[in-house]
Amino acid sequence: MNPAVEVACFLLGFLGWILVGVALPNRYWKTSSVDGNVITSSTVYENLWLSCSTDATGVHNCREFPSLLSLSGYLQASRALMIAAIVMGTCGVLATLVGMRCSKAGGDNYVLKGRIAGLGGVFFLLQGLCTMISVSWYAFNITQEFFDPFYPGIKYEIGEGLYIGWCSGTLAICGGVCLLCACKTEDPDKLSYPYQAAMGTVYSVGSQKTPSNYDRNAYV
Q1: Please, which of 8, 130, 135, 192 could form a disulfide with 165 given CB 3.0 to 4.6 Å?
Q2: How many Å apart are CA 210 and CA 208, to the nearest integer?
Q3: Does the reported pTM lie above 0.90?
């Protein structure tokens, strides 16, 4: 595998992993403005953990969701998927660092290192899928409630946290797919070619016919 391709894939997956950590605690997964006069107008916004509001006077209040079991199913699933994405991304970063050819970890067995790098690509791909499913499912429920004329609650819009999540999932999927494709096209025989060439040289030297010092005059 080309070391430049390895580094590019690693950077894509690493940036996706960083953005997951940015998106998860972001408070603006969905936002809504409650209009009134200048004093009573406020902004309400939520994420996977908190519900917050800010009024025109600058007063800021947040409350945590009371119970995990009382939450809706998609919110619980989004939490689990985002946490799984962070775990998968961590495993992907570690595996790719060990499997990169420019890394000294894992020794000089490039076939094994290529397989470890491919495993890192799988982890990055899973991270991206978990992130995309989580934020897309959350956004689907926002739009469904927004366009439902009979929905009695506050109607929210998509916040910046979801856009960060989409960027994270896209980067992780691109990095994982590129890493897998690069490892798949690697020829194991090519990796072991220097060793085979060296063995062939030793064999040819060892099997070379040495001139005999004995001729017919040596026999009596």
Answers
A1: 135
A2: 6
A3: no
